[in-house]
Prior knowledge:
CATH topology of the largest domain: Tumour Suppressor Smad4
Mean pLDDT: 83
Radius of gyration: 18 Å
Distance between the termini: 37 Å
Strand content: 35-45%
Amino acid sequence: MSVSYKKGEVIIQQGAHETCAYIIESGRVEVSCMVNEKKTVLAILGQKQLVGEMSLMEDIARSATVTAIEDTKVSVIDRKQFNRLLTENPRKLFPIIKALFERLRTANKNIVLMERSDPQKKKAKQGEKVGTGHIVLTAANESSTMALGSKTVGIGDFPCKVGRTSTIGEDDIFADNDISLKDNTGEPPYNISSNHFLIDRVDGNYIVIDRGSSHGTIVNGTKVEGSCTLDKKVNELVVGAENSPFVFTLEIK
């Protein structure tokens, strides 16, 4: 079932008890929550992205509010539909399954980070806003151009997930990427992991989060531990270890 929302309408209310998820067909939404009576924007999501997926699995109250920031159309999937699709058309559940995998990756990473000090995360909170438009990802060398498939790619929808091109294609439910990079390493261990890093925009700041990659993500010479803020207009990003050939610039417009 598809439902349309006008700009400014609330799709999900924090604290509500519901058991359905929404796949965004068109438009964009803002995900936010109230912390100490202050609104915090967690993400801006767009077409083909998913919100509210955890309510399919558990009965706790919604943890965030989702508001349409432009006219938006969503597909609604409840538990009954989920069970039916699981039998009749499991492929249609791929976005939900991928979103759950991403949530698990993030949760595992956060558990580790909570057990130790994370200076980069502190830096992210203090970072200045250096842009409010979009990001241009530019290959810095021939290997990176071949991996990206072009010299530059514009990024305007966040979070933007980046990882290695799957040999299975869209049928690979373990890979969930908006930008896929070809790794010409030849054989494992690859420099680029299946789900390597993501770029997000939170409270006007752009951040890079490593998604549990094998060799890590390096931003401006420092390996990302958890997340880091892009605090320059032009930032260097290395996908993989220090000697990885996959080097890019992230320019904030």
